[in-house]
Amino acid sequence: MASLPNTIHELFEAQAAAQPDAVAVECDGRELSYGALNARADLLAQKLGGLGVGPGKVVGLCLDRSLDMVTAVLGILKAGGAYLPLDPAYPAQRLSFMLADAGAAALLTQRDLAATAPEYGGPRVVLDDPAWEAGVGAAPPPGGAGPDDPAYVIYTSGSTGTPKGVVVTHANVVRLFAVTDPWFRFGPADVWAIFHSISFDVSVFEFWAALGHGGRLVVVPFGVSRAPHDLYRLLRTSRVTGLCQTPSAFRQLIRAEEALGVAPDLALRWVVLAGEAVEVQGLRPWFDRHGDQSPVLVNMYGPTETTVYSTYRPLSVADLSVPLKGSPIGHPLPDLRIHVLDEHRRPAAAGEVGEMYIAGAGVARGYLNRPELTAERFLPDPFAADPGERMYKSGDLARLLPDGQIEFLGRADGQIKLRGFRIELGEIEAAIAAQPAVSESVVVVGDDPAGGRRLVAYVAPRGGAVIDPQALKTRLRESLPEYMIPAAVVVLGTLPLTPNGKLDRAALPALESAAPAAPPAPAVANDLERQIQGVWRRHLCRDVAPEDNFFDLGGTSLHLAEVHVELQNAHGTMPITVLFEHPTVRSLARRLAGTGVADPAVAAARERARSQKLAMTRRRGVS
């Protein structure tokens, strides 16, 4: 293999030098050329250098999707620092913890986030306020980062209730594109959509697949990311050739295409599926319309701790007729090794279930400021020729198939993957246990009446305390992102135990049988409310009162996308943000009738909706 650049941003700088006038990034009708983006990122790097940012320093990045977001990532890297993505939709308490835990040297943000920005005592740079440019010289950026320096720190859910930051180096990322280029053939003709939040490490692949190879990066606006019909239209108008999706999000896109009709000018070459197990049969409608070569659908697997992706497996029409217990994830990337080991860390026989341990050049540095946890999960690789090599204990179960490929079979511990997010159930349980009224709790994954999966919390009160499920969820939102809030809270007198005194999960009552009989829902006021109520009932599979909050009823971003489509068919085009701002049947009816304003609790509802991390985005962990 030819020698690789030392750092990620050097990939971009080479393209900026070669084609300064080519469009590098577009967002919501605005665009920047490679030359303009490079110059603005250099300016920001100078500013950050003056604030003490350099190799090993972390910079918080709390921005909405925008051109400034792209500038910020490049500017931090050019200054030699590592970026710490802070999703504005996450609770301020969680973001403040990340900034403090990472020892952030600076925070980049924007004016309209000032009221909700996390608590932070260090220097702030407000990127959409031109004042930050004052006094910044035109000298080259300070730089200085090497291949083994951190490029980013992404926090994942922690089983003890404390998120943990994964430290990924420049070398980890640069080699990812070197080893996958023979498959994807990255180049200037490509247009990659950055669909995911930058808090979700799939965004790393989206970002540099375009900007590291002279292609165009299309930043998908938040509202479009939640509206599959609008996303499909954007794929057409922007001539997107590369798209990354969770399987849940892609199913929504498949249905959107069914409704809109197949676009003859769709330019997709690649659709990368990751973040959840792929149910191959759900791809049948897409294969029926497109075949399996244009575009190619690829299933890729990989924890954050091994740099975005660790395996590669093109999916084909032939897979529809192959019986599988789990998700086919293929072979490891060429510079990685995957060991499927039994409980004694010996290689499992072909066909036998074992845990995956991942070794090779993608293995991250470890967890920031967590040496004990790093030592527990990043282990010496006993199968390596070099005794200094490490392997990452993934916690994922798999088996080797007769042809040498790997089949993913789920988790070996209390961690789950739900709509693309990697969630430690223990972190949710720790947050519930911190509530004064709760004596014990357990969180499980249950079936959603609409056919998906949802988080359900079973709680028992302390002494004579009374637990209000809605109030409990409200308090949890102070510290947990929306995707970790249980869709339902079931209050029991005590949790069931086995004869050995352990929690008896099998004895937990079904959600429907645990809930007391609900009083009759208040009557709707008019035909418009009745129509909206009917749409919500169909998609949420439950009764809906006129003042019930869509998200409190268990509505997710996937439900919202389906409701949006149906209401648009009846009432004409509307931004999906209207549903965020009017999360009750009554307020939405008034808005559609032209007589209403947003609910009093709109700001909170909107933030909660936004933070339902895209069924399609964030961190995960696993991509």
From TrEMBL:
Transmembrane segments: none annotated. GO terms for cellular component: cytosol. Residues 523-596 form the Carrier domain. GO terms for molecular function: phosphopantetheine binding. The keyword Metal-binding does not apply. Keywords: Phosphopantetheine, Phosphoprotein. SUPFAM superfamilies: Acetyl-CoA synthetase-like, ACP-like. One of its GO terms (biological process) is secondary metabolite biosynthetic process. Pfam families: AMP-binding, AMP-binding_C, PP-binding. It comes from the Bacteria. This is Dimodular nonribosomal peptide synthase. It comes from Urbifossiella limnaea.
